[in-house]
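Running this now, will post back.
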Amino acid sequence: MRYSLFRSVKTLAARSSAARGFASESVPDRKVAVLGAAGGIGQPLALLMKLNPLVSRLALYDIANTPGVAADVSHINTRSEVSGYVGDDQLGQALEGSDVVIIPAGVPRKPGMTRDDLFNINAGIVKSLCSAIAKYCPHAIVNMISNPVNSTVPIAAEVFKKAGTYDEKKLFGVTTLDVVRAKTFYAGKANVNVAEVNVPVVGGHAGITILPLFSQATPKANLPDEDIMALTKRTQDGGTEVVEAKAGKGSATLSMAYAGALFADACLKGLNGVPDVVECSFVQSTVTELPFFASKVRLGKNGVEEVLGLGPLSDFEKEGLEKLKPELKSSIEKGIKFANDN
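Update: finished.
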């Protein structure tokens, strides 16, 4: 799970003069659509996807303000052609021909809100967008960022099932920010180079359902139990930490955009046949008795190539796994019920 996407923005800029030749000869054409591109996550995510040399067409969609975002981003001298789409009547056009659809659409968390407080608003938005995906780009890989991911991924699955387009290999809940946080916090505590750190994060994408497996972290640091407990708690509460620090002015938008861009890049590499692309993601799974679960996933030309097991767990992690299951089960069932009742 080493990331190279943002190794050198200078390199990307240097390539710009020969970008078209490089793109057409060396890299397949790939269209990426961002739904919710004018929002707090969507705008920086649009910027980061514009910097990705694997993207040839970038479609930015939202209910308002997308033409301005698209015009701004389109001036950046990288490979992809950028188009902005606004409103329901242009959603199909934004989606047609997409290889990857990233969904950061919805309302952000505010102080005092849990991810479940977002449910009623964001669930309706996700259901509507997924209905359009089923119609206009049914074979696209879908990266779900809209919270609560523990529920919105099951909602998407139910929408696709009803439409007859569901492919469990192509629906992903983006939990990469939990991995990014776990790596950052572990590196700080262990005093190691963060660029060399790997930490699997399993379970779900809210509170105690987030379970970082620090016993499997590399490089090994042999941290005391109290440090592991504190790191786990901080990783689980990372979103709340940012919401409180922003004091009502927003949530974790910039770090989420970064994490979303990393995961989208991994999906594109998988589509392009790059071997051994492994990331953690919330997917349909038989790793536990729950129908959806986040764990390491091998990505390939069809999306999920293989859902990997949890590996050896410490006693603390085994306890955390059992504690998270009832809450995650409830969130999954909530999403399925919403999709079937509305």
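DSSP finds twelve helices and eleven strands in the chain. More later if anyone needs it.
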